[in-house]
Specification:
The protein has about 600 residues and is of the alpha/beta class. Helix content is about 35%, strand content about 20%. The protein is built from 18 helices and 28 strands. The termini are far apart. It is an enzyme of class 2 (transferase). It catalyses: alpha-D-glucose 1-phosphate + UTP + H(+) = UDP-alpha-D-glucose + diphosphate. This is UTP--glucose-1-phosphate uridylyltransferase.
C-alpha cells in the first residue's frame, strides 16, 4: 500500500468526505456525487487543498508572520488550544465583538451583555485560519476587506459569496476527527519551519558575529543551574531603532504593572509610599505616571499603566490619581487574605537566609496575576496585542521604560528577565571577557525590583495556582541585565529623599533629570542616622537641602541641624556625641571634613 493510499484512508476515517447536503454549483468541483441527500467530497481534492494550505502556512511561518486561529465550536476548543500552545500562537476570540480586524488601527470600546469591557487588537494578522467557516461570515467579510488571506474549512452548504472570499479552501466535513487531523498538520508544519529557521540562524552565525553572540547567549541561559543566574551587561544590548515608527510598534507591545503595596510607615509616613511627596509637590506615583505619559507622547504609542493596590493603600493611591484624569491608568485591588499571606511570606524570607534566591522575584507574583485575571483586565490586554509586562515592585523614579531592553527580550524570545545592580562579588571565572555576559550565584546579585515578563509566561504562571508554587522553581532558567546606576532611583529611606530633593536632580515637565554638572556617574553615598529616619524630622533638621553635586559620601549621626545654602563636597562625616548639638550655619561649604563637635566647624580636618 502506497503512502498516498494510507493518507486517503486516513481522510476517509475522519468522515471528511461526507457533506451536509447536495452541493451547489460552485462546490461541485470538489464532489464526486451524492448519496442519501449528502454530497460525497472527493478525498483526492481534499488532500490537494490540505497540501496547498499547509504550504502557504509554512511560507508565512518562514517570514515570522502573525496568525489568528478563529473557532467557536466547543468541541474543537481543547484541540485548538493544544495546537496554539505548542506552536506559540493564540486562539483569538475577540472576533465576537465585530470589527475586531477593521477597527484594529483605532481601538474602540465595546460592551457586551455581561458589561465586560473588551478592546480590539492593535496589529492585524497576516493570516486568519477558520475551523467553522459557516458561522464566521463576519470574520470573513472583515478579513476580505483588509485583504488578509483566509485558510478555512468549506462545506457544500456554504454560500457562493462567502466561498469566494476564502483564499485557501479545504473541502471537508468539520468533524472532530478531521479538525484534529488538520490541527496536527498545522502543528507539524509550524515545528518543521521553526526548526529550519533555527538551523539557518545557526549556520548564518558563522558568517555574522552578532548573530553568533545571540546564539551563544541563549545557549548559556539554557545551561544555567537553578542556583545560578546569567547576567548580561546593559552596554551589550543593541541600541534601539532610530526609526520612531519602529519604536512605537515595539512599545505598543508593553504594559507597565506597578505594585502599590508598600506603606511609608518605615519613614514615618502614614500613607502609601507611592503617595510620598518627592519634589515640587510631585509624589512618587506622579513621577512614574509623567514618565510613561512622556514616552507615549514622544513616540505616539499607547503604554497602559496598571496598578495593584492593597486595601491599606487603595484610598491613598486613588487620591493621587485624581490629578490624572482621562489617562490610560487602571487599578485593581488585592484581597486582604492574599495580603496577609504576602506579609507572612516576606517575614519568613527575611528570617531565612537560605531563601535569598527568592528575593530576585516578587513573592506575591502568582497572587498579583490571579487578581489581575479575576479583575477582567488581563483579557483586554491580550486582545490589544500586548506581549510583555514591565513589573515595578518598588518606588523607582528612574526612566524605567527602556526600548533597548524590550527589543532585546522580543528579538531573543526571552520570557522573563530581572534587572540587577552592578556587582563583582560572586562572579565566576569564565572564558568570556569582562564586558560579556557572566554566570553568577543568585545570592550575589541584588535585584532593583524591576522585572520583565512575556504574556506567554504570564499565561503559564496562571496555570500554576497550587499552594506549592515558588518563584525560584518557576523561573528555573534565570536571566538578568546588569543595570546601570542611572536606571535606579529608589525611595526607600530619607537619604534617598535628600538626593532627589537636592540640586543633583531637577523636575522637568514632571520627570526627574540629572544635573549634567556632576562628573561621577554614580550618585553620592549618603548615610543618615536614626534621627533623620522620620520624614517630618528629616524636614525639620534640614532648613534647606544642601548642594551635593561634588559630594562623594556623607555620613551624619546624632543631633545635627543644617542651615540654608550649604555646599557639601568630597567626603563629609558629621557625628554629634550624645547630648551634644551641632548646627551647620547658613552658606557654609564643607569639603572633605570630619566634624564631631561645634568647634570643628571652624577648622578643617582631612579625612
Amino acid at each position: 500500500m502506497t503512502i498516498h493510499s494510507v493518507v486517503i484512508q486516513k481522510l476517509l476515517s475522519t468522515n471528511a468526505h461526507l457533506g451536509r447536503r447536495v452541493a451547489a454549483h460552485h462546490f461541485k468541483i470538489y464532489s464526486v456525487g451524492s448519496r442519501n441527500g449528502m454530497t460525497i467530497v472527493d478525498s483526492e481534492k481534499t488532500l490537494i487543498c490540505l497540501r496547498n494550505a499547509c504550504s502557504f502556512i509554512g511560507e508565512l511561518v518562514r517570514q515570522r508572520a502573525r496568525f489568528i486561529f478563529v473557532n467557536t465550536n466547543t468541541l474543537f476548543d481543547e484541540i485548538i488550544d493544544q495546537m496554539t500552545e505548542t506552536i506559540g500562537c493564540r486562539n483569538d476570540t475577540s472576533w465576537r465583538l465585530g470589527g475586531f480586524l477593521t477597527n484594529s488601527s483605532s481601538p474602540r470600546k465595546f460592551r457586551g451583555r455581561n458589561k465586560k469591557l473588551n478592546l480590539t487588537a492593535i496589529q492585524p494578522p497576516d493570516c486568519v485560519v477558520i475551523f467553522d467557516t459557516e458561522r464566521k461570515s463576519s470574520v470573513i467579510q472583515e478579513a476580505a476587506k483588509l485583504q488578509i488571506p483566509i485558510v478555512g474549512l468549506v462545506d457544500s452548504s456554504m454560500p457562493l459569496d462567502i466561498y469566494k472570499k476564502i483564499t485557501y479552501p479545504v473541502p471537508a466535513k468539520d468533524s472532530v476527527q478531521f479538525v484534529y487531523l488538520f490541527c496536527n498538520l498545522i502543528t507539524k508544519t509550524f515545528l518543521y519551519e521553526q526548526r529550519r529557521l533555527n538551523a539557518a540562524l545557526g549556520a548564518s552565525a558563522i558568517a555574522k558575529p552578532e548573530i553568533r553572540e545571540e546564539v551563544e547567549q541563549l545557549d548559556k541561559i539554557k545551561t544555567v543551574g537553578k542556583d545560578k543566574i546569567y547576567v548580561l551587561p546593559y552596554e551589550r544590548l543593541e541600541p534601539a531603532s532610530e526609526d520612531a515608527t519602529e519604536t512605537k510598534q515595539l512599545l505598543d507591545k508593553l504594559v507597565v504593572l506597578k505594585f502599590n503595596g508598600n506603606l511609608g510607615s518605615d519613614m514615618g509616613f502614614s500613607g502609601p509610599k507611592s503617595a510620598l511627596e518627592v519634589c515640587n509637590g510631585l509624589t512618587c506615583l506622579d513621577l512614574v505616571i509623567n514618565h510613561i505619559e512622556s514616552i507615549n507622547s514622544k513616540y505616539g504609542c499607547n503604554i497602559p499603566l496598571l496598578m495593584m493596590n492593597t486595601p491599606s493603600t487603595h484610598d491613598g493611591i486613588m487620591k493621587v490619581l485624581e490629578k490624572h484624569p482621562n489617562k490610560n491608568i487602571h487599578t485593581f485591588t488585592q484581597s486582604q487574605r492574599q495580603q496577609e499571606n504576602i506579609e507572612d511570606m516576606s517575614e519568613s524570607r527575611t528570617l531565612n537566609k537560605s531563601s535569598a534566591q527568592e528575593k530576585l522575584y516578587p513573592s506575591n507574583l502568582l497572587e498579583v496575576f490571579l487578581s489581575l485575571n479575576s479583575s477582567g483586565k488581563l483579557e483586554p490586554l491580550i486582545s490589544q496585542g500586548k506581549e510583555y509586562f514591565l513589573l515595578l515592585q518598588s518606588e523607582n523614579l528612574a526612566e524605567v521604560v527602556d526600548p533597548k531592553i524590550l527589543n532585546h527580550l522580543i528579538k531573543n524570545s526571552i520570557e522573563h528577565c530581572v534587572e540587577v545592580m552592578p556587582t563583582t562579588s560572586g562572579t565566576e571565572e569564565t572564558s568570556l571577557p569582562p564586558q560579556e555576559g557572566r554566570i553568577q550565584s543568585k545570592e550575589h546579585v541584588k535585584s532593583i525590583n524591576t522585572m520583565w515578563m512575556s504574556m506567554s509566561c504570564v499565561e503559564r504562571l496562571l496555570q500554576r495556582n497550587d499552594l506549592g508554587f515558588t518563584s525560584s522553581k518557576f523561573f528555573d532558567r534565570a536571566f538578568a541585565i546588569d543595570t546601570p546606576w542611572s536606571r535606579y532611583l529608589p525611595v526607600e529611606r530619607t537619604s534617598d529623599l535628600l538626593i532627589l530633593q537636592s540640586d543633583l536632580y531637577t523636575s522637568v515637565e514632571g520627570t526627574l533629570v540629572r544635573n549634567a554638572a556632576r562628573a561621577n556617574p554614580k550618585d553620592p553615598s549618603i548615610e543618615l542616622g536614626p534621627e533623620f529616619g522620620n520624614v517630618d524630622d528629616f524636614r525639620s533638621l534640614f532648613k534647606s537641602i544642601p548642594s551635593i553635586i561634588e559630594l562623594d559620601s556623607l555620613k551624619v549621626t546624632g543631633d545635627v541641624w543644617f542651615g540654608t545654602g550649604i555646599t557639601l563636597k568630597g567626603k563629609v562625616s558629621i557625628a554629634a556625641r550624645p547630648g551634644m548639638k551641632i548646627v551647620i550655619p547658613d552658606g557654609m561649604e564643607l569639603k572633605n571634613r570630619i566634624i564631631t563637635s561645634q568647634s570643628d566647624i571652624g577648622g578643617p580636618s582631612s579625612l
